[in-house]
Amino acid sequence: MRGKLINLGVILVAFLLGGGTMYYLVENNNHLSNTLIDKETLTTGVIQCSNDITIDETGISTAVGEIYDATVTIQNYVNNRLSSSGSGFVYKKDENYGYIMTNHHVVEGADQIIVTLSNDDQVEGTVLGSDEYLDLAVVRIKAEDVIKVAKLGNSENSNLGDTVFTVGSPVGYEYRGTVTRGTLSGKNRMVEVSIASTNDFIMRVLQIDAAINPGNSGGPLVNINGEVIGINSLKLVEDEVEGMGFAIPIEYAMEYIDELETGKKLERPLIGISMLNVTDTYRLYQNGIIINDDIDEGVVIINVSSNSGADKAGLKKGDIIIAVNESKVSNAAYLKYELYKCNVGDKIEITYIRNGKISKANVTLTKIEE
After folding, report:
1. Region 170-182: what's the mean pLDDT?
2. The whole model's pTM is what?
């Protein structure tokens, strides 16, 4: 009997303790629920965890609203046939016109430009200026057709891992107004591209993992404040590569905006040489030049123009240029990149190898003759 009473007492104590514990947990859980999930949370999507931490689950819809009506679709017609399409955005408006930023390759060779606005109205655009090295162009439309002007930011104020998004027309007109979201994956990436007039060139770009496709070219890359920080330009297209797109920093583009708006051709400086990469062994051999196997980077001079800056500085056929103004030159694309950061009349320092010895020369840059 005593054993039964003890067991009954144990059961009663356990019941009381368990019930009390359960009551405590339920009450505190209700308190926690009432603190975190209230009417404001359900309507705003913002969860207030404490006085110091706020989790925002509203997405980027507010930022999208800042840029959406400023984004346009651009269709390039040649001989009354659609040649290509891309995107763009209105970055400025005055009393008479609205000004759209896009890529050079979107409008290249166009006989007619048709701009589709966010409300699906279509208007004719005029290309004011374009540059293949920058891959930038400015298109003008009437001021009365502008729905909204984009807010411009600065990519230098952005950090790796920041949320970014794009608005554009991937694959073409049918998918206009598409929004894709991702992160800022890299800054100051040096990407080698092919340009018709010069084969290879280097672009300094932002790397993103937001999905971009043909038709996104020229569209805005935007931060979560709704500010444009870049112009989508290209992506890596390989079977083993996914999610690597690139955009031109907006502040870099705006450095040339005056020339693009006025249609002024950008002057680029000239050294006065013909060149080949050190890796182009066969063509170097055809020009009577043999490079030591231990030299695997640089640009070889195969001809010097008479009375050019290079000629006056004493550069000769067979010299291997390895740096410009202390910046390493891996190949001809990098040489052009460093050169085109300068202006006609500037004096640059060229580091080169001649007969196995490293030397330097100061070259005054001249204007490229058409």
Report:
1. 90
2. 0.77
